[in-house]
User: Fold these one by one.
Assistant:
Number 1:
Amino acid sequence: MMRLVRFLAGIVALAMLVGCAETGIRGFWTLRDADFRQLKPGITKAQVVAIVGKPPLAVTYPNLRQEVWDYGYMDSQTRMRAYVFFDAKGIFTHHVESFDMDYYSTTEGE
């Protein structure tokens, strides 16, 4: 029985990895601070995708004329978030890194 459980867990893990590879989204465990430091103002969305992969989440703010891509990643043992900003023309302007407060926040005790 234990062998079957391990086998099925392996299949699920493999399917998750293949799913990420097919979409171009890199797993959070594969990204580092150094990847985001390679992003230089003026590069295109395609160049950003080539460096850090497709974003798991992208939000457009029409009134601000910008788009923000949201990436989760690991910095050593710390869960982090990187927000990558583009102008209305799709040109990278800057990025912001912060702790992943979704991961570290808790609702216990409320």
Number 2:
Amino acid sequence: MLFETNRSIDKNYIYTQTDDNLTFVSHVHSSYEFITVFDGELECVVYHERVKLTPGKAMLIMPNTVHSYSTVGSSKSFLCVFSPDYISDFFNDANVGVRGGGVYSLFDFNDSLGIELLKDKSTNKYMLKSVLYGFCGAAAPYIVKGYDKGADGELSVKLLYYIQENYDKPISLKMIAGEMGYNYTYLSNVFNKIFGCGFSRFVNRFRVENAAELLRTTDKSMVQISNACGFESIRSFNEQFKLDYGVTPTDFRARQRTV
């Protein structure tokens, strides 16, 4: 699952995926994100708030909202990321969603036909809009508003955008502190508080997730993937990947191709 800023600001952008045991680090993007669970249980963390997702429920997350996922036991889920222009009336409405100060909505959901239409690449844009507006209509009465992200929340968005734009290069928190004009110690404390781990660990996890996507979807060599994702060396790539996935990148790719 990639949430790069150059993808999430595109017009007419829509992306879907079905996952077993979804887990993904904190991220942010300029699109809406819809997620529902078919089986098991998912936990979504929105800033510091934990939201439980179980079958029969769905969640709509507003643009520029920091969130992450983790599976509780096991899960099977469907996720759709789509640009605001698909639902421009909802996006611009002063009483709901982003304009209304909304952060997310947790609501009852049972629309298997809508999901199938989103997954079908032949579905025309008018039908896609109809489906997505249906989701927004169901979500509208339950939007969480007036959520005080505070200074730390705003800073977390800046940090995530910076990481997403620069993870393929050598970066450090000291470098970011200098560029953004923050005290390094303050920034380090905020980062650990928001994301629950150190900067280097978080960035490496983000790099690993992007590497896993390239392993699944391309034939690029291990050296190419390592370089593209900003690892210092093949050794570092292998070590970090095994730390998160329990297998080497080579074994991970082999398993994907036997599924």
Number 3:
Amino acid sequence: MKLCRLRRDGAIVPAVRQSETYHDASSVAGDFDPDFFTAGGPAALQSVDIGALPVIDAHDGYAPCIARPSKIVCVGLNYHDHAKESGMDIPKEPVIFFKSPSSLSGANDPILLPPGAEMLDWEVELAFVIGARAKRVSREGALGHVAGFMVLNDVSERHYQMMRGGQWAKGKSYDSFTPIGPYLVTDVADPHALNLMLSVNGQQMQNGSTADFIFDLPTVIEHISTFMTLEPGDIITTGTPAGVGFGMDPKRFLQPGDKVRTEITGLGVQEQVVVEDR
């Protein structure tokens, strides 16, 4: 099942994509927000005849496929090849940081270049959404708390992240720095065998696989839920493979007009253009 939120006539409509058709799910789901996941989430739609729901013939683009998560928890340095290109040791346990929920944007929305930004970078990542409350869960039952998976671009301003003091969140949380979607995909056979790709202006920068994870998803969920309760609708993003601009020699960063394309096997494609935020 592919869930998305479509912009139409100034409103946002929750929808289910079935084959090539979008069906309006607002009458049965309200919105794809924490309340939806608390009430059963995608499992609650299994008994619904999706084909009988109204068809959406036209829309104005994708909104973030998840609305109002209480938090976005990120795992850093979770690919062997990315840790190597960063010149850092393999972490002994998952590295955790946060992005602000206000940074969420739709899959094809522009990436805003903040005034004075010098090092705007890209990171294609597999993200997942918590479907059932997770507090101190074991790795054996961890994946049972996942509602679905999606593409996420962890846009990062490296100067803010590394040279402005404090936490990484400074470089991760500007408006538009977390494009998600286009879909939340609920039926992924093996999230540890997905290809991730990212290109800039048609040039491939990242081409990795979740098979290169340092910490698999059950370990990530067990670890994070030791330190905080994960609530329905929370977003967890799992790190990026090698090929980020900061890891290049010479380093390369995004400029106004650059076109970024991200893709993960079976989860869809994002396309963004970088614009100055004036």
Number 4:
Amino acid sequence: MKVTILGSGTSQGIPIITCKCDVCHSNDPKDKRLRTSILIESDEATICVDAGPDFRYQMLRANVQKLDAILITHEHKDHIGGLDDARPFIFAKGEPMTVYASTEAQEEIKREYSYAFVNEDERYPGAPAFQLITIDGRSMKIKDLIIEPIELKHFTLKSYAFRIGNFAYVTDLSELSEEAFNKLQGVEYLIIEALGKKKHYSHINLEEAVDIAQRLNVKKAWFTHISHGMGKTADVNPTLPQNMMLAYDGLVIEI
């Protein structure tokens, strides 16, 4: 299985409009971060986790030629704002794009993209079409992938992590419950959010992410959903445990 980091930035991305900080003006490509998303490719399946405002460019940059499904962690704009740009995949397949999302996220998707959910004879020509499948905590099978959703608390919202065998993708959480931690036991390769160095009300920070990775005793951990408050990649990585590093856009991980 191959995992590609399509975006490793927080909701505003890096650089941030108007920001004059050293990170936003860094010349290091690893400090240029689109909104958080990953691509997962197996022998049979190609799926994307989240489709934020940068989705179109992310698909072009990674040269994605087919997409079987999109998994949605939660309903915030930086995770669903690019769903309309799935249209080329929809048109190529001649069928709706399968989107896995919680009931809460589905409500927001239907509101944001109401034109995609009208009767077919009333739908505007060229509009997208989605087949929404509810994430309810049970395992999901997409071709040769068995995906276990793990419920997270994201301040007042519900978000989902996704585990596939010994790999897990965990983003947008304010705390990790004991139940969620137990469901992550045995994971060897972990992508987990680390917003920055300071404590935050709706996201875990670097210290908390490192602690979770160490408690899980993973072989390798990558930190994502990074804000400019984290600092430059070249400065932060040397301070991390040897088996951990900041993720960056374009990183390819073989699991």
